[in-house]
Structure formats: C-alpha cells, structure tokens
Amino acid sequence: MMPTDSAGELDDLAIEVVRKxxxxxxxxxxxxxRGIMELVRKxxxxxxxxxxxxxxxxxxxxxxxxxxxxxxxxxxxxxxxSKAHIEVQKRIEAHIEDTPGTVITSKSFLxxxxxxxxxxxxxxxxxxxxxxxxxEKVIPGKxxxxxxxxxxxxxxxxxxxxxxxxxxxxxxxxxxxRGLSQVIAAAVSHHRLTWIHPFLDGNGRVxxxxxxxxxxxxxxxxxGLWTVSRGFARNREEYLASLAGADQPRRGDLDGxxxxxxxxxxxxxxxxxxxxxxxxxxxxxxxxxDGMQKRIQATVDRQVSFGELKPEAGHLLRDVFLRGxxxxxxxxxxxxxxxxxxxxxxxxxxxxxxxVSDSEKGPVMLAFPASLVGYYFPRLYPEGVEASLD
Length: 390
Fold this sequence. Notes:
A hairpin with a 6-residue loop joins strand 4 and strand 5 (about 365). The N and C termini lie far apart (about 45 Å). The protein has 17 helices and five strands. By secondary structure, it is mostly helical.
C-alpha cells in the first residue's frame, strides 16, 4: 500500500516538495495571489483536459467562464469540460475550507467529485463505447457496475470495488498520516485510484482533482500557485508509462509483498515528486518580484509603442502587483498625473483587462486575462498556444 525505499530517496524528494512549496507564495501579496490562483485553475483545467486528448485554447476557457460558448459543437463541448473542471476545483477548495474533517479519500467524497463534474459535462461526454461495441451512459457520481479494460490494465471487478475503496480510504486519508508520509501518500494514492478505476469514465479527471484536494489538505499546494497537471501533460508519455509500470504484478520475491510491483510503485512516486518539484520551481521563478515587475513594464512599453497606453501605466501596474490593490484616490499621486488624466489611464487599463475592480469606484487589482499570460508568465502554456494568445 506504501512503497519501501531503503535508499531514502522518496523522503529526500518529499522534503524538497514541502520546503519549496512553503516558500512559493511568500513574496506575493495575498490579493495578487488570489488572481494568480484563478489563472492557475484555468491552467490546471487546460492541462488536465490535454492529458485526455482535449485541446481547449486558454482564450476559449476564458470565454467559457463568461458563458460565451462557441457555435462549433466540438469546441463548445471542450469549453464546457474546462468550465466544469474549474468550477469543481473551486467547490473542492471551498469544501475543504468549510468542512475540515472531510475525508477526501472516502468513496462518498470521490463520488461527489465525479457527480459535480459530470453534471456539468456536455451530453455527448456522458456516453462511452465498450470493447464489444455497446454504448453505456455514465451516471454522475455512480461507481461502475461493469468490467472494463484500460489498455493492458484490468481493474478490479466491480463486485470488489467497495472493498478496494474502503481500503483506499483507510490507508491514504491524509488526516491519519503525518509528516513526509502525507507527501508520499499523495503520489501513491494518485496511482492507486487510477488502478482501482472506480467509475465507468472520468477516472483520470477525478484522480487529478482528488490529488489537488490531497495537496491542499496536506498544505503542500503552495496556496494554489502550482499544479502537477502541467508537469504530467508536458511529460505525458512518461506519466502514462509510469502509471502503467505501477499497474504491473509483483515481479518476484524481491519485489515487495503485495500483489502489485513494489519497484513500479516506487518508480511512479519518484516521477510524481520530481514533477512536483519541477513545477514548484517553475512557478517560483515566474513569481520572482524583480522578474515579474520587469515583464509587466515590458508589456506596458510594448503597448506604449503602439500608442495604446500611457507610460505612467507601467508604474501603476507594478505598484498594484506589489500592494495587491490600490484605492482610486491614491492613483494620481502614484503616477504623478492630474486626477482627470489619471482616471483616463485607469479606464484604459480596466477596458483592456490589465486591471480589475469589484465596483465602479472600488480599488483596482491586477488582472490576468489569457491575452496577457504569455507576457506575464512565459511558458505557462505550450509555445504554439502561447504565441496565439495575443
């Protein structure tokens, strides 16, 4: 149920995850962090869907969150899938905050995730084709009652799902684990849930959402500023191969004591934790204060050269990033302009979605629309996608 690592490599990797995750958000103002968290949720949705073979452009995800859906049925379906992922992730986060005693590895919680997700899915995604050619409808929140085949993997028979899920809950509940065991269990549970394959469809999506919940519950999610899904998607073949490697049966007396391979599970856990460290490092680099301010200024300079913005906008945006929010009455002094001129600068930035405000006269905060992602957060999305954001 848990890997044995005599070399201690998993513990070393887990320590790195804890250490680096704790420091990722230290320099970012909590209000600015909320805006970046929204962006990371969209990114998480993009990469989770990409793993499933569904490529939804970040601009289309932004539009979906504004209920602006494409007339093209396939594109609209992908938009609905992305919107569902973001909404369910937010619900999971709120549920963990509001109900601290939630057992996130329980069958009831996992079925709730599946139900919330599939109730938001387009109708065409509710039907799956079996190996014998028959079509089955996915019932939101219901575990499978059929036998399935996933590549070469034969998950447990449906009649044994209750037993496997009960053992899963008891073994991996983060509330029963301490220290580094929680971090390692986040990796182990990710594989074990995909291996059990409790639902007719959507197991990968539910597993990645469960893992997000696990990292948050264990307080190693860096306040929502990083996600493993980006790393999985960018290393998709290795991710799938690592999962499949841990699916294999025991390879002899020296390969653990259970039915499944100990070496394969150990390999997957190392892969998972190394991906986590890589993604934390990536986001930490992007959130470096000096680098972020320089990219904000470079973005404004580009718009100034086109005659789209005033030079003073750069100072305002950098200040908002550092302070989180700025009352409108302070802006003329900050940018050294008369009140009427300052209002025009603010109006221009609000119109272009560089700034956002909760009300017409409320303080302004930094916005992170898809059109700015490539400038503020280079390489957040794949190169071809990033080039088409502007």
